[in-house]
Give the backbone structure.
Amino acid sequence: MKFLVLAYKNLKRRKSRSFLTIGGVAVAVAVLVCLLGFNAGYQKALTSDVDKMGYQVVVTAKGCPYEAATMILNGEAGLKFIDEDIYKQITSDPDIDKITPLLAQLAYDPEKMEGKGGFTNYLGIEESYMPLKPNVEIIKGEWFSANDANEAILGYDAAESEKKSIGDKISIPGKDITLTIVGVFNRTGSQEDGTVFLPLKTTQRIFDIEGKLTGIGIKLKQIEKISEFEDRLYPIASIQVISMSQVKGTILNLVNSAKILIMSVAFIAIFVAIIGVINTILMSVFERTQEIGIMKAIGASRLDIFQLIWMETLIVCTLGGIFGSVIAIFGGNLVEILVRKVMPYTPGGKLLLITPELLLFSFLGVIIVGIISGVYPAFKAASMRPIEVIRSGE
Amino acid sequence: MREWVIKADHLKKEYSSTSQRTVALKEIDIEIKKSEFVSFMGPSGAGKTTFLNLIGCLDKPTSGRLDILGYDPIKLNEEKLSRVRVEKIGFVFEDFFLLSSLNALENVQLPLIFAKNYSDTERPKNLLKRVGLGHRLTHYPNELSGGELQRVAVARALANNPEILLADEPTGNLDSRNAQELFNLFRDLNRKEGVTIVVATHNVKLGFSADRVVHLQDGKIEKDERLAQKGGR
């Protein structure tokens, strides 16, 4: 039997109190791990989403640029329409490398999600769409036979969930039309995996919006030229130019300020947990005044008592760290679901990135905290004089 | 080679609180030889416990000289005092003072841990057998009777093979049969293993079963008598 066993037995004697204290530490650790993991994961997912999109610049109808950007990232591409003429007008701009018109539409499908109903995204595109999307390719079938054919290409997930393949027919709810599936795109990991792609002209005809677009996707020859490009487009009153890197930066800024707020909450949780640990250990030290006196009387030195109490603190913090990490790993998915519900835009992929390094960092952090918070109660216990106990027992 | 294990010269101990000063020991001069069995008797407040605490290195005297096995507790710092306590002295208390979270065996192992002696694993077990508790090794204090608890405490006191065993009112919480058994155990340890035993007690019958009885009154030695025990050495 060594000190460790002795310390463990002391904690075991006050099961519920020790358990609650460990729980406090565990929650603090879990919150910290989730937050740091969320931050890393969100940033990574957002960057990859923006990069996959392929456009550096999107031209849409005037409105709130971030709302528009959010919709574009969600594969919806703008509420308001712009004239197709604008597309023709800016195509010849010298700084443009690639450009493609987009027409996004939504339709409510009561059959979707096994009868629960839901919206389906439709995106009208032209052949110029593909060069802008280096990571998109047709894995089954082929491109539309004509610019106004009654044909569709499905995103990977759309094909999967509808259980449709090449040659199958689909219809658009509320529209009197039948489309033949001619192709399926690969999985890109972005929102467009769930989209149904139609030829641009077909989309305009079906939704009765001839000559209109909801956005124009652009890749510049040099992204540095973006402000000059924006200046040239400025005179066109009805449009706005959205730089995706700016949007990304702004979203990250928003997330960061929220993160700072939550971080302070996490640090308060950790602080409270430390106070809880110190309180619990200190309380048990005072309750055990007699016991500590006895141990000193039968030969325990100051250092022995210090070690013993310190060890108890370390056990509490270590167990708290372990449980906290386990909670973070398994509870992280719940947080992810919650975040997806409340955030206006969440990128695809995993939001919570809990790496071994992150766990190790948090774990070491809590051990250091344990070492520090154990010092005072341990010192207090070590300073107790055995004689007082013996006298009180007289 | 010194003859005594404990030697006190003009030993004085005062307790001072803010309002008053209490003189617990006035002038104590005594020598206790190796392998002596001494009992200190006297009414409450006579200074028995104070004296035991001083020779047990739990407290320091106010003035006078004290020598415990060649150590001067007045000069030693706290770390050294705890070394002397753990290696040379065993304590038995009136209230047993066992650790309730540990079983009998673990309680006896405790002084070995404090002495950093991790190798002598058989000794605690043998000690418990020696005090007649070989069948109670894994029992916890709340599962043992008063007499058994005090015998565990004696085994604990002997864990590091001390030269001096100090017992402060060891029978105060025991019935007469268990009290007698405890004294028989002391007698036995003293005769067979040569342990120096110092007991403070109210119990006249048991007190007089020692080799030497020191009567304390108001912090002074009133009478110091050596007894010829039946069947003595």
